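Shall we go through a protein fold together, starting from nothing but its sequence? Please make up or recall a protein chain and show it to me in full. Go ahead whenever you are ready, and we will take it from there.
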Amino acid sequence: MTVKKILAGLLRYFIIACYLFIVLFPVYWFVSLSFRHLRDIITYPPNFIPRSFTLVNYGDVLLGRGVVEKGIVGADNVIPFLVNSLLISGISALLCMVLGTLAAYGLVKGNPKRMNTIAFGILAFRMIPPVILITPLFILMRPLSLLNTHIGLALVYAAFNMPFAVWMMRGFLMDIPVAIEEAALIDGCSILSAFARVILPIVKPGLAACAVFTFLQAWNEFFFAVVLTRTQAAQTLPVAASFFIREGMTGKGMNVGAMAVVGTIAIIPMVIFVVLVNKWLVRGLTFGAVKE
């Protein structure tokens, strides 16, 4: 190897290391805060390596030992909020995958000129600021008894994430050679059967990517959750985290350790979900399926 190639390789690894540090250091910081005593959290200058480790914060959050005030949160621990987040995010992601894939398939198979116009119209909906629609949504959902419910919040998340799901799945479906579907039709499949037996298995990477993105968007969302929910019946984990910014007899305060615990807990389900669908996240399974 020449000196030039060695320097280029070192520069590449240096850039990668810098990028990883910028991305991972905030995660390390709040995870480490969740294992620290209060005196170690508020010390200045801050200690990047904790002097001691404790599970008190986890006990307070998971067992409700006086950290989550009943008068504010209405619960003894954050487990109900974690369950709500899992249900709402899962329903939202499932709706986006099913309806988004069907809509994308229709856009791919329709008249290209008209379908492009419709596709841009769908994307334009996603450009609307959510704060503009929160009042109409609140007025619409109240008579339908959808406020403070899992399905109501899941429908809102699905509606706002649907444009991205449609565009993502449209891109994957457009990559599939027409000859593959035509071969299925020649073999006796109907359009619906060809879609279910041939098209869907091919676009599994797209479905996995769509599921991860829509699940993550719903999992992290705070604005709609805090406005459209009132009790722990449907409040999500980001809303629970905000309750640790409290106002008490001693004035305003923030339980940083407890908030770090909630943030750490919020990461775990997402990591598990991504690991489970990781093998489908590699795009390009359709390339080379048909040789010209």
User: Anything to note?
Assistant: Confidence is low (pLDDT under 50) at residues 66-75, 247-251, 284-292. Residues 161 and 217 are 8 Å apart (CA to CA). The longest strand covers residues 245-248. The first helix runs from residue 3 to 33.
